[in-house]
Every structure is written in structure tokens, then in C-alpha cells.
Amino acid sequence: MFDGLILAGGQSRRMRTADQPHADKGLMHWHGEPLVAHACRFLKTQGSETLWISANRHPDDYAAHGVVVRDDPAYAECGPLAGVLAVLRRTRAPWLFVLPVDVLRWPSDLGARLGAAARVDRPAYARTPGGPQPLCLMVHRDLADGLQMFLDAGGRQVQGWLRSCGATAVDFPDADALVNLNTPEDWARWQ
């Protein structure tokens, strides 16, 4: 049993243009729907119970898709790990399946394979031929204290935290899997 978390709490700075100076990637439409709707649907097909959305802007818009959680103000500058921590502190499910809102082309067995590789004391994350996808991960809620200690000690890098808890990389051989839409150029390429 696991909950799903969609990370949509960033500033989307690299997606901003003169035409869209306040872009919020998760709410941008991709094939007729906001990116967040695509991620929610995928998490539901994977078996997610509750859908959580880490969003620090436009909470009312995101609330149409799941339970919105803002970063704890004490961790406001900690990046996406602040969103992971916020939901690990709230979820009742033992496991949390995490996806960034701007990642698409998910392998159909992503949740099952990450779940099989994860342990209570060791998360599992995806890796493709293009490199690690550290925020496509399965993590147990018992790791919340360790994550908080990592952040309190000044840690910010997701891969640094994953190394600190001995996370397992799960390889997905498709080079076009888990495509990240960070910029307008990425968006145009994969449209």
C-alpha cells in the first residue's frame, strides 16, 4: 500500500518566457490537460491510494487534483526534499511513491519495480541510460526523521540524501523514459 506524491513546489524558472513570466509547469497544458493531471492519472493506475501534491503556488488550482501540501517554512529553501518531508510527516500509508510533475513517459512497471527494490531503511529510485532520476522514487515513511536530519545539517541535494541512506538504483533501459520537461525547448521537443 502506498500514497502518491507529485512534486510541483518549484518556481519553474527555466520554463519562464516573456510570454509566460509566471509559468507554473504543473498547471501548463500538455495534450489538453495540465501536467499534474497526467501525473495523477499515472499514479492512480500504479495503485496509489491518496494523491498528495507538493505545491507552494496556486494551491487552489492543484487542490482539484489531490491533497495539497506546502513546504514547512523552516525548510522553504530546501528544494524538492522539503516536499517529500512534508508528506512523509502526514501520510498514513507506509510507502510514498514520488514523481516530479514535469516528468513524462513513465514505464508501466515503474511503481512495481521501485516498490520491489525499496526497503524500510532504503529508498529506491529510477535510473535511465541518460542518468539517475532521483525524484522518481519509492520511500518508506520511517525515513522522515533521517531526511529531516539531512536537511537540518544543510543537505539539499537529492542524490546526496539518497547516498546517505544507501538507496537502490533501479535501471530502466528505455532512453526515452522519464523525460523531464524543464525548458520551453524540452516542451517543444516532446510535444
List the helices and strands and how they pair.
Blueprint (H helix, E strand, L loop, with lengths): L1 E6 L21 E2 L2 E2 H12 L4 E4 L4 H4 L4 E3 L10 H9 L6 E6 L2 E2 L5 H8 L6 E5 L2 E10 L3 H9 L5 H7 L3 E4 L7 E2 L3 H7 L1
Parallel strand pairs: 1-4, 1-6, 4-5, 8-10
Antiparallel strand pairs: 2-3, 6-9, 7-11, 8-9
Helix pairs in contact: 3-5
Descriptive account of the structure:
- There is one protein chain.
- This protein is of the alpha/beta class and 191 residues long.
- The chain has a single domain (2-190), classed as Spore Coat Polysaccharide Biosynthesis Protein SpsA, Chain A (Alpha-Beta Complex), CATH 3.90.550.
- 29% of the residues lie in helices and 24% in strands.
- The protein has seven helices and eleven strands.
- A seven-stranded mixed β-sheet has the order 5-4-1-6-9-8-10, sandwiched between helices.
- Helix 3 packs antiparallel against helix 5.
- The chain is globular, with a radius of gyration of 15 Å.
- The N and C termini lie far apart (33 Å).
Summary, kept brief:
By secondary structure, this protein is α/β, with parallel strands linked by helices. It has helices spanning 35-46, 59-62, 80-88, 110-117, 144-152, 158-164, 184-190; strands spanning 2-7, 29-30, 33-34, 51-54, 67-69, 95-100, 103-104, 124-128, 131-140, 168-171, 179-180.
Which key phrases capture this entry?
7-stranded mixed sheet, 11 strands, 191 residues, alpha/beta, Spore Coat Polysaccharide Biosynthesis Protein SpsA, Chain A, single chain
